[in-house]
């Protein structure tokens, strides 16, 4: 995970800024996906969501730059000069950058709208997929397993739909509840996929918060005006918690 930063992949090397990035990248990918779909449908809200996608992607790219130990050496530019298809981080960097580019072209109306929207849709899916894959490939982190490759894209969409709900987009509430339910189901199953040692660590270091976030997530099925907040806070909390607690390597690693 840290090979591009030149740091050893050992110990707890990530901090709160990294957890923030894993929340923002999900929101950025989700909003970009919504913007692309709205553009394809010619929806009246398409332009607003395209601008929002631009802003959130820009914020996340700034956080990604700021949290890098090599931020002032700009050695992470190597991500864009190298060809590393097996690396989820490489895909994530390109996915975010190109989603930003095509969101900008769509917002400025520079090019064929449908074609640009399809391209944005593609790169938004890359941005959605990258975080879970980036964690799942770490074989020496027992808490980061293959289930996260499904959980993280789902929670990213819940984040985006939560924002859409707060913006009073009526179309957001049904998919918000549907995807929140799927996310909660995977989150409930997740501890069962861990080794006993990893599960014990999860309960010791974040069990209380994990349970609270699951309970909060149930709020999406309650009152409509509270559903977006419940979805946003629950999924943001789960993503940040799994990044922070999951850095543990286990005994003997």
From TrEMBL:
Keywords attached to this entry: Membrane, Transmembrane, Transmembrane helix
Pfam families noted in UniProt: NrfD_2
Membrane-spanning ranges: 20-38, 50-68, 88-108, 115-137, 143-167, 174-194, 206-222, 229-248
UniProt keyword Cell membrane present: no
Signal peptide extent: none
InterPro entries given in the database record: NrfD_2
The keyword Transmembrane belongs to this UniProt entry's keyword annotation: yes
Protein's name according to its UniProt entry: Polysulfide reductase
């Amino acid at each position: 995970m840290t090979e591009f930063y030149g740091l050893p992949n050992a110990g707890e090397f990530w901090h709160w800024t990294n957890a923030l990035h894993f929340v923002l990248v999900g929101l950025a990918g989700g909003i970009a996906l919504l913007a692309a779909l709205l553009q394809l449908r010619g929806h009246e809200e398409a332009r607003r969501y395209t601008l929002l996608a631009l802003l959130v992607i820009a914020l996340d790219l700034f956080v990604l730059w700021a949290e890098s130990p090599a931020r002032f050496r700009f050695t992470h530019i190597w991500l864009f000069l190298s060809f590393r298809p097996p690396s989820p981080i490489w895909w994530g960097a390109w996915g975010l950058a190109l989603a930003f580019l095509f969101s900008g072209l769509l917002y400025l109306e520079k090019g064929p709208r449908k074609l640009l929207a399809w391209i944005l849709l593609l790169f938004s899916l890359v941005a959605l997929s990258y975080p879970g894959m980036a964690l799942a490939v770490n074989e020496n982190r027992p808490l980061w397993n293959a289930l996260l490759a499904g959980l993280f894209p789902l929670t990213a969409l819940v984040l985006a739909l939560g924002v859409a709900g707060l913006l009073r987009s009526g179309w957001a509430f049904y998919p918000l509840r549907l995807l929140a339910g799927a996310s909660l189901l995977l989150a409930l199953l997740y501890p069962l996929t861990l080794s006993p040692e990893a599960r014990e660590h999860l309960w010791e270091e974040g069990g209380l918060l994990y349970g609270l976030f699951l309970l909060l997530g149930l709020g999406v099925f309650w009152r409509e005006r509270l559903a977006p907040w419940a979805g946003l806070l629950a999924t943001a909390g789960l993503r940040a918690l799994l990044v922070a607690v999951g850095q543990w390597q286990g005994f003997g690693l």
